[in-house]
Amino acid sequence: MTTHYLVLSALLFAIGAVGVLVRRNAIVVFMCVELMLNACNLAFVTFARQHGNLDGQLIAFFVMVVAAAEVVVGLAIIVTIFRTRRSASVDDANLLKY
Amino acid sequence: MNGAIEAPTIEYGQLMPMLLVFGAAVVGVLIEALAPRYLRKAIHVPVTLLSLAGAFALIILQAVRDGVPEQASAMGAIAVDGPALFIWGVILVLAFISMLLINDDDQFVAQAAAVPGSPEEEDAVAQGGAHTEVYPLALFAIGGMLLFSSANDLLIMFVALEVMSLPLYLLCGLARRRRLLSQEASVKYFLLGAFSSGFFLYGMALVYGFAGTVDLGGISSALASVGGQDSLLYIGVALLGVGLFFKIGAAPFQAWKPDVYQGAPTPITALMASGTLVAAFGAVLRVFWVALGNLDWDWRPVMWAVAILTMVVGAILAITQTDIKRMLAYSSIAHAGFLLIGVIATGDAEQNSGSLSGILFYLLTYGITTVGAFAVVTMVRDAGGEAGHLSRWAGLGKRSPLLAGIFAFFLLAFAGIPLTSGFFGKYAVFAPAVSGGALGLVVVGVISSAVAAFFYVRVIVLMFFSEPAADGPTVALPSVGTAAVVTIAAAATVVLGVFPQPVLDLADQAASALFIR
Amino acid sequence: MEPVEIIQHSGGVIGVAWLMIALPLLGAAILLLGGRRTDRWGHLLGVVMSLASFAVAVLAFVELLGMSGDQRRREIELFQFIPGMVDMGLLIDPLSIAFALLITGVGSLIHIYSIGYMSHDPGRRRFFSYLNLFVAAMLLLVLADNYVGLYIGWEGVGLASYLLIGFWQHKPSAATAAQKAFIVNRVGDFGLAIGVFLIWTTFGSVAYGPVFQVAGQAEQGVLTAIGLLLLLGACGKSAQLPLQSWLLDAMEGPTPVSALIHAATMVTAGVYLVVRSGAAFFPVGSTAALVVTVVGVATLLAGAIIGTAKDDIKKGLAGSTMSQIGYMMLGAGLGPVGYVFAIGHLITHGFFKANLFLGAGSIMHAMNDEVDMRKYGGLRKLLPVTFVTFFIGYLAIIGFPLLSGYFTKDGIIETAMHHSPVLGWLAVLGAGITGFYMSRMVFMTFFGQKRWAEDAHPHESPAVMTVPLIILSIGSIFLGGYLVLGNTLANWLAPAVGGPEEPIEFHFVTTPGIATLVLVAIGAAFAWMKYGRAEVPVVAPRGSFVTTFARRDLYGDAINESLLMRPGQWLTRLAVFFDNRGVDGVVNGIAAGIGGTSGRLRRIQTGFARSYALSILFGAAVVAGALLLVGNI
Amino acid sequence: MELYLPILVLAVLAGGFAVFSVAIAPFTGPKRWNRAKLDAYECGIDPTPQPVGGGRFPLKYMITAMLFIVFDIEIIFLYPWAVAFDQLGVFGLVEMVLFIATVLVAYAYVWRRKGLDWD
Predicted ipTM? Predict the structure, then answer.
């Protein structure tokens, strides 16, 4: 009955993707990205079970590490721009265009 | 819980160039930790440059002494084959000259954490602060590029993608001047990059679900045994493609490129525009040729559309740009489109090696010219930093004919005028594409080149036939590094434009055995 | 007699003939890249490189002399240039080596002269680097064994010429003149480029050997088209009608440049092109050859008429250059006999015109850079060496018997007469006008009352300037006789361009010859009455409409303006209209449409990260949908 | 009927649901603001002392949190290694020492650059 997990993973991924589009706060946007990564993890683990090999679980470990690194880098960048602009809205960062 | 697990074999010799770069990056972090502030740069520069040069020497050694390996290294995770060695060489050359540019003072922020315009920042500037972390960060990014282009396994590719991208996100935000723009570029690049790598990862999950493995060769054989009619696979391939297209800046995933290129410190832009593009094309080729080579009838029409859209968007939007770095960014988008033509032109083994050789040569010529062009951009300065707006470049030919002449030459190379390396680059990609049945694409390519040539010429006309503004920008006396970069790039553009045969032969040789699976 | 086979060559001095090009190129590179560090010795390096190149040329010439006539076309391969299309190589044959000797010989003299002339100029190093660049490019032009190599050299000399005309960029007139030369030459170069392209598509090769071998088999129409396109290129570079207008303005450059590039060498590239391609694309009696002769005659008359009305000594000489190149073009359209005299005149002209220009430079040096002849007068006693050498050059150009110009110009006139009396008599008329305007120049400058300004203190130039003058004037005296009498040049060139069946006999007493001398004498006498004996007003009188016509360069600029510039400007304005941000630029019609599209499309790039993310998501959906669609068909 | 088509359908449904719920929230949700809602949340009591500029915390908290994440995540590799330590042998040991050494380099950086100092 692994299909349910895949469905859940697809749901999480979609919520994450839509969240990136509709939320303005950079930190929330970023959390949505993390949600997408976790959705991937769920899919990997599920497929690993389906195929009966461990590759998927292994990949999930790596994805978690990468996600952690991304958090650190991302938060640093977001905090820097927040301190400059006194705003964490991604829409306010709008000098570079056309 | 008994019986030892057999230790994996890892061919350290073959991976040495990459390990050397990563090792130097770790050493760089140690230097940051242990060396006193005033000594850091003096230690970083030789460590960085020597490690890059050493890695390049190791590649030569590998190719000359041991020949090209025929098996993937590290239990099939990394493929050090002919194309990989060539791409590594190209990345290291580009990285080396980009590092010379990065080494130039006065490009990076004194204290990134200080709010722009605050007293803290003034203090940091007054104390001569500088983020020497730039060097290890760049080395990590370069190591990531090497790994990205040679990954034979989607997991390694994903990790490499992040190792390459994360330092670049940070580096983008470190410009000394126009810090608001720089920080904005950084946050945009980061959010969109993370977003797109989410797609890549999900695509990878779906492909894993289809094939039961993330090994590129394994995926290729699963295509034959599992049967290629699976929606799971197609969606997976599409999402993988999105992640890769984002990195090369193919339309409609190109939107980040102009903003990020404009905002980032120019030396970092040079590194991204050359090294990242080369590495990303290495990964594109591996995914689409090695893993999905048997599926080419399915992905090729989509890639056609992407290539055409990319060339057209790049060429057309470049015309009305008013900022020199944005214009170069759009030019980079158009060039990514030209390169995609080579990716599409597959066929039998001979055809493939022809296309591959063309792409390899193009990557080299384009990369070097790009670094040179951005090096020139760093030298044309206003009171507030680089003179980005094109109107400020008016009449530069009268103030500084040599510099303007060299820049004009680079632009002509981008346009693919004969006697420049760009001409042979285009020739090397377009000629096999015609024989590979992508004539339509080549026609679009030539037309977009013509449109592109127009905006390059416009800049040249602006530089040489307009009256200079009274308070026009000054041309900074270049540091030794910057002068060397401009000279090397100009020389390479000339030599590859007049006497390309040895390098073409080398690319042919690298491409002859294609990728190992 | 047909041209002989081209023989592959290796070894010897000819084997390293590429040094001729490489040495000055290296000099230019060192001087340009070395920057201020090379200021002190840069000019010496330039001279040494030029002399070294000359030495190689002489040695190659000697080696060639040591071979029998049918062995004298040597080709050396350098490298594969465009894979499978163009092999880069050099062709050392009597024609190219003659040019190489002229270029490096006269070039070296002018390098030496420039040491003195530019001694006070802060940009002397830059000047020498451009001169070296020019020599390298010009040598590539004449030595290449294929049209692509020629084209590269062609563009190279164009670039050097542009840089040197605009050398004193601080003068707006110099900058404008440089741009004008650049643009007018682009028209010609465009023709040449298309011509070369047509050669490649027709014959599948651009190397001289294979092309000339199979040229006869191509269709007549294609041959004519190629010929006319090459001629258009030649007209641009050699300042022939209708692309003549840039040469007069080009005199804004330093005088040694005018002597080297705009009199002795570069402007003769068109003649070289026509002679080199002659057998294949301009055979006697063909349409293309006819057009060449017509262009030549029209230009020789137009140049001479312009020369009569100029008060600026350099512009007068520029008109004269146009006119003399017109003679060469005329000769180049007349088949093998004509080639001999065209090349002969080219060489002698290289000497006496360089002599005259350098003389003019010496006068300007003495007169605080004053170029208006109305402000000269009576200079012969103050500048004795300059006067004597200038006078020799003058006698040579008007065709005074037994001097250089006499032999070669009369040769052309006689050959033309033989070919078509109309062309011949027009050429004779041109010679008469030459007699008038050159005499006018000499009388206004060296004779009569002194009319110079109070602050001018005329003095003789230093030896570094006068010695080249003396050497050139010796050439102006003897070279013509040496080349023409005894068929020296004809025999020498025969392996390269073919030759007449029987030796050319030079007749000293012929109807056109005597007519020419009489007309020249009348012209000179008329000039003496008007400018030698009578008082020359310091301000130019208004003059008749003919004078005005000539002073305005025969309205060449006005014609260009209405035919070429106006539509161009109109297009530009249209384009600028579409160029929404007002960055100026030259935009053409199609681009205007693309520009408009671009202007609208760029608004998609809103700058909002979230809208970019939307485009990524949208793209992902489309790519996935498309793949599913394609995969499931 | 393909095995995975339902995933696609559900993905579309999920996307629709996500868009719907986010879009509907501003219209259906009550908008009653009060002081407590706008306050920073600190274990149910008022933040002390009241921060200037609307309840912000010093950056030090963030730096500490980030350091925690980075150094905490290494356990993910240590744990499987510890479980299979016997079977992995010398190779595993060497690799793990290398890994920890690399992490130590980062630790040295943080330590020397005063990332661990509170003041």
Answer: 0.87
